[in-house]
Amino acid sequence: MSEDLQALIDEAVKKALAGDDDAINGIEDRVTRSKAKAALVKAKRAQSKAVDENSDSEPSEEQPATENSENIILKIAKILEGKFSGCIDGEVHSDFIQLKPENWFEIAKFLKEDPDTYFDSLQCNTGFDLGDGMLESRYNLHSMKHLHSIEIRIKVNIDNPDIPSVESIWRVADWFERETYDMFGINFTGHRDLRRILLPEDWDGWPLRKDYEEQETYHGIVVPKVKEGWE
Amino acid sequence: MGVVHGQEMVLNIGPQHPATHGVLRLQVKTDGEVISEITPYLGYLHRCFEKHCENVSYEQVIPFTDRCDYLASMTMNFGYVVAMEQLMDIKVNDRVEYIRVIMAELQRIASHLLAIGVFGLDLGAFTPFLHMLRDRERIIDLFEMTCGARLLYNYMWVGGLSHDLPKGFVEATLNFLDYFEPKVDEFENLLGHNKIFVERTADIGIMPAEVAINYGVTGPNLRASGVNWDLRKDNPYSVYSKLDFNVPIGKGIKGTVGDSWDRFYVRLQEIRESVKIVRQAIDQLPKDGDVHQSMPKKIRPPKGSIYSRTESPRGDLGYYIESDGSDTPYRLKMRSPAFTALGVLNEIAGGWLMSDVLAILGSLDIVLGEIDR
Known about the structure:
The complex is a heterodimer. Chain A is built from six helices and eight strands, in the order ααααβαββββαβββ. Chain A is of the alpha/beta class. Chain B is built from 15 helices and ten strands. The chains are: A alpha/beta, B alpha+beta.
């Protein structure tokens, strides 16, 4: 990488840290931009470690939610707060429920078995790298009986990414969690068979984390890097 | 008298095996001919699409969706553009919506034809496979006429389509449907009521509804278990609410509800329903409307996330898209229906004979490109 590009990236990262995202988003060359984004995530991570504060700054997300889904999410958040007090992480959002990882297993069991909620189907489980040294696991639940759905988000620290596994509640979570573990390194405690699923067993690192760097060689084979200017 | 157990043997099916529909390795524990446990090993076709998507712009994601489920690329495109249009709050005109539905349903016919044909092939029935591939070819010709590509179309774009319908497409499609409709009955007689086929599939690999829901199985596999669930009806997107069609479910005609034969038969009936939908859509297709009308110049969705589901030939196809306000996705997850369908294999195929396991695998209609992404 030429020095000019590095300087450009540094400049953009500095601006982004000051709160101006447009500097990075405005970089024309795609490869440079993604490098800048990776540098930003790293810089943020270093910052959060250095300051060692609990980072409360959550990316504010606004999304038009239909009235019906808003109602159901707020309703379920209220039920959960009553049943498992202190389970909700931070404030109550209108389009998802942010939970603490501690009693997720019991909450999941309750959500599936309670006749009012009855989320019998786990639609999707996604891992997520929030930057700032935080990972997130997101669950999209759906009830085939009541035809309502919610999204659950659970944030964990990247140094200690433990989330209780719900694999024994929804069997579909077995492979979903294996995939999330494979890509993000989120450790689902209590999973009976937590192995990599798409990548080889002996692969290094967690590819979908933003600061991922490919290993140099794999079994003596050189791992090809993304070339400059690759589109 | 106790039960005599032979020595357990571990056997690998695949990764290079025609019955695994791609590159998939099944490690099976066998006791004689009886399979006691199946452990699928995936990832032979993993091409890191989700990582790639984070480095390309939103419109460049569409060719990646093509290459996931290469047997139903149109519906993969469809799912993605529906998700993006929800995220960006774009409303496309009716002509675009109807063309999309026509393409998606033709694709569903093509995909189901291949699914049934290959299912028969797995059981040794070679002739029906050729009949079905012959007719699938005509659908692919229609796609080629529309967008130039035969398998990987990149046809549906965010806010529109790459091309309008070519001249003569409607006539060609109607001609095809007239030719094709009687053929469906032929397939049913040729394969569905064939004595050997029935013996090999009826009462084999029964998947109860609760198991199917718990394992996240969707699409025709779920409907074969007797659950009336189709996103085109239950959570209508595009113009499906304006079209009249039935949702076939498994009734256990030859055996038990949720057996392999039901999974075959639901697909066959869905072909009939899709023919019905294409006819209606062509009937209602608005004459005018620019297919590029609602296409944004630069795709830059607002900050936020969306989880959107559409009905692909294999089931609920979900896209989870998180946007950070830039022109590349921050995270894009494809929730693949075949991934969950393969997950249930050990549950429903354990305890059956070796030859039945391949029949059950064939009846689930998996595509490895979509599983591994």
